[in-house]
Amino acid sequence: MRATVAGATANAPVKPLRWLRWSAWLVLLVVLLALPLYVGSEWLKAGQWMMTGAVGAIGLTMLVGQAGQLSLAHAFFLLAGGTTYTVLASGTEDGRVVGFGVDPLLALLAAVAVTALLGLAFAPVSGRLRGIYLGVASLSLVFIGLYFGQSADRLTGGTSTGRTPAPFALFGFTFDNSGSLVVLGVPLRQAERLWYLYLALTVIAFVLARGAVRSRVGRSWRAVRDHEASAAAMGVNVAWAKAGAFAVSSAYAGLAGAMTVLWFDILKPDENEFGTYGINVSIAYLAMVIIGGLGSIGGALVGALIVFGLPQVLSLYSNQLGIFTGSGAGAVTPILVSTFVYGAAIILVVLFEPGGLAAIGRRITGGLHAQRKKEGTSR
Amino acid sequence: MHTFLQLAVNGLGKGAVYALLALGFVIIFKATEVINFAHGSLVLFGGYLVVVTRESLGWLGASLVGVAGAGLLAVVVERLLLSRTKLADPNSLALLTIGVDVIVAEEIVRRLGVGVPFLGEAWDAKPIQVGGITLFRTHLVAMAVAAVLITAFYLAFKFSNWGVAMRAQAENREAAALMGIRSRQVTMTAWLVAGLLAGVAVLFLATQDFSGAGLSRGTHSIALAAFPAAILGGLDSTAGAIVGGLVVGLVEALSAQYISFDFSKSAVFLVMLLVLVVRPSGLFGTRESTRV
């Protein structure tokens, strides 16, 4: 992971291109804002799933890439966040499960806070361990989450039925199909409303993460990643930096967990370790981070687009493509194909471009810089 | 007392298989400092070859093919992918093995489909009663095979040229290379041995006695339980792998009985966490020292 140090810190955007970058982001944002008016709900649903992945991946890339702590526990924090939101926001009418009927916004914030605290509580372990040892140690949280989901069915609804989360609402406006809201002749129903909610959450997550990475906090993370002893000598509180990175990353996962539950419209804990909150999900998130380029916030977005987007897009196109024939034994499913793709992408990235897609992107913009400079001197 | 004794026997039987897998992790780690996340797929691949070939070759022939195949896959992964990235640090290579694992495991699970064949025909589901304690053949054979293989490995490690080369490389890679040790061969053999051990382990893993289920995605996740075994013993300690394997087997058997079956998987990992908090590099692992 050290190979990416140069990539993660070399942000130095040369002045003349900055406006280009800003306008590119602006155009992207406008397109994303306008999209619900033009595309169908199934595409919006796919987009929401990618944004869920993006939020989680941003959190993980800060932990793995910036702070240098390998974690396979992401799925556990997703479950914890999803459960916290559901338990707090859901009503008290269903006697089978516990519900508090708290305002959904508060429940969402609580989900973030609770998972951050859980991340902090892991500090005695995460502070002492490094590299692969930490990776495998954090894997234990996934198994604890599996057991929690199976046994605490008053909270999680149990593995067989799960429970339905209360729809998100903001100051009385509910993000479901209720009421009627029409913009430019397009009715904004659940898919459109959630799209805007997820977009807002993703943008907030992205901006906060960029801020963290570029500030004092991010510098202390990188210092600890590169050399703990010298970081300590320079006055960084190593234990606190490590614990903080874990807490921040967990908080992001908690938010992504609440988004996951809202996306499925059900909280359903796993029966085995290969479900919505299982090892495979932890690995999928790690894949986003590796493919995007460890430590790169923008890279995490692209990674999420590939790892979570591909199965969605493939299944939307599955009829036209005709390669996804049948189901059951031996079937080639969109999920299988995208698993192959991201597995291969991990291998290729490690072999040929340890900085991930972010490094490729930087190389392209770097090439632009060089070209401009050349033109500037020749003129 | 009787139950406890029974559980201990079961636990040690399972522990022997975990020890084989954990030893694989440790051998690879010692030679290359890479932790092989694709170990579960080596296990699955070996098992899959047995399933495919046993119609024509019979159980014994198929098992040999399976074991050899797992070893071969390990070598292929090492030669084709890992050896190409001499400069990459071991942690990124570990990530690379995750990529390999994802692909191989998915493909084999797809090929297996809904069928979950059992592998251990020669010793499956014929328990023997000794003084009120039920001994599963799978466990007995596993213990015997593990004892033989681990002893053989230990002797080779201590006395053969390969063992000397391997220990030298584990001590200091560059110095060993300068002294004329072919790191290429040492690394390749380490992966081969680890793969062979994984191929042997699957013959016990996918049985009625061990897991109650045949070869499936579940087998891959049982192989994951060898992770805690290797880690709690200490990643660079061969003795630690064996102790770790037995501890994991015992913890799993005891917690399944005395706490709950669902809890037993987490119990293994909790014990590992506990060990790591007290001893961050495992029970027998070498402590990392920091130089400033």
Notes on the structure:
The complex is a heterodimer of chains A (379) and B (292). Chain A has helices spanning 5-9, 18-34, 41-66, 74-89, 104-121, 123-126, 131-151, 153-156, 158-161, 190-214, 216-226, 228-233, 238-264, 279-292, 297-307, 309-316, 318-321, 334-352, 356-378, and strands at residues 169-170, 173-174, 182-183, 186-187. Chain A is mainly α and 379 residues long. In chain A, the strands form two sheets. Chain A has a two-stranded antiparallel ribbon. A two-stranded antiparallel ribbon of chain A has the order 3-4. The two termini of chain A are 42 Å apart. With 292 residues, chain B is mainly α. Helix content of chain B is 73%, strand content 2%. Chain B is built from eleven helices and two strands, in the order αααββαααααααα. A two-stranded antiparallel ribbon of chain B has the order 1-2. In chain B, a hairpin with a 2-residue loop joins strand 1 (128-130) and strand 2 (133-135). The longest helix of chain B has 42 residues, at 39-80. Chain B is globular. The model of chain B has no long low-confidence stretch (mean pLDDT 86). The interface between A and B is large, with 52 and 52 residues.
Write the layout of secondary structure elements.
The complex is a heterodimer of chains A (379) and B (292).
Chain A: H1 5-9, H2 18-34, H3 41-66, H4 74-89, H5 104-121, H6 123-126, H7 131-151, H8 153-156, H9 158-161, E1 169-170, E2 173-174, E3 182-183, E4 186-187, H10 190-214, H11 216-226, H12 228-233, H13 238-264, H14 279-292, H15 297-307, H16 309-316, H17 318-321, H18 334-352, H19 356-378
Antiparallel strand pairs in A: 1-2, 3-4
Helix pairs in contact in A: 3-10, 3-13, 3-14, 3-15, 3-16, 4-5, 4-7, 4-13, 5-13, 10-11, 11-13, 14-15, 14-18, 16-18
Chain B: H1 2-32, H2 39-80, H3 90-112, E1 128-130, E2 133-135, H4 137-159, H5 161-171, H6 173-178, H7 183-205, H8 217-224, H9 226-233, H10 238-258, H11 261-278
Antiparallel strand pairs in B: 1-2
Helix pairs in contact in B: 1-4, 1-7, 1-9, 1-10, 2-3, 2-7, 2-8, 4-5, 5-7, 9-10, 9-11, 10-11
